[in-house]
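thought: fold this chain, then report.
action: predict
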Amino acid sequence: MFAALSATNEAILRAKSPQELYQRVCDAAVHGGKSIATTVLLAEPGSSWLKPVAVTGEIMKLGEASRFSIDSDNPYGMGVAGQAFRKQKPAVNPDIVNSAQGRPWKEAYLVAGAVACAAVPLVKKGQSIGVLLFFIGRSWAKDEGIVGLLGRMGENVSFALDNFDREDERKRAEARAQHLATHDDLTDLPNRGMFGQLLNDAIKVAHRRKRKFAVLFVDLDRFKLINDTLGHAAGDTLLKGVATLFRACLRDSDVLARFGGDEFVILLRDASDAAQIRTVPRKLLSAAVTPIMVQGRECRVTASIGVAVFPDHGSDEQSLAKNADAAMYLAKEEGSASSPRRSNRNRSSGSCWRRACAARSNATSCCCTIRPSRASGLAKYQASKRCCDGNIRTREWCRRCVSSRSRKNAV
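observation:
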């Protein structure tokens, strides 16, 4: 049995998973320790039964076919396996065929030729998770030294299981740290650093395959008002909602990232079709004005988008990002500047929007349309208002609105 203990320690060093460890220990007990058969029984979650997960020996079918329980009121829980599990101490039965304790398995043991058995608990973080069950000769079952060695085998396996858990926790912590280093902690989207890596990879692929792709910079208009009025928690809820809406507008191959604040950036892979490049901003603008419930209130935002296409507007990360960002700010400026009439109109829509956020009245629904501009060869897009007839108006008056309201107050 000393050889089995030594082989168990070697198995602990070499095994790369608990399952491999269980099988190596069973092999060591039978081939090194001359046990007739050895099995590892683990408690099934939400059940009082023990399930064999590894078996070695001439009567290995016995361990696989027999039933073992951890319930003291169950006849199949009165044996050494259930006793060792509950008390977290080795349990021995030197005469399993003739003892009352072994009665539930008597016929199976007679057929298999098993005469004695011992069980040692497997403990992880102070809780029993299973047992090591050894079928041995009567002389070994009565030898306290042998039983002590079997107990040490169980303790060593339990120690190894704790090590596996610690290693798993370390790997999970490393993976989590790596994820946090490359993703935004609020939306779980790729962050600026991760997006830069993905963009550089896309540039290399596009160079090699002679393809185009697009970079979109998206900025949420009037987001600061929600943040200042309802608080940062409300702003966070809105950002997560907008991120979900934006993600639904994109293909699985596209990348949506958050650069911080209310700025999102998108990588449209393989965007050789100009119609596709025009369609995606339209979808994003429509998604941006979708009402989102924040603290029981219906909130809306609009968006400004700048687009840069590789290689037309840049062949490296810096130039593409710079041009898309510049186009986005041009779109934002076009929406906020201009004639006094447009300024008055902006103030009116802003007032309606604030009333909608405060849930004090129902403001006119916002929608979006694309106003492409080719300043500096770049495309920029911004949302506008939907009039009462359901059509989108950018710089025209809705006659229906004018007939029912004064021209000054028309949207």
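thought: worth noting. Residues 336-376, 385-411 have pLDDT under 50 and may be disordered.
final: tokens above.
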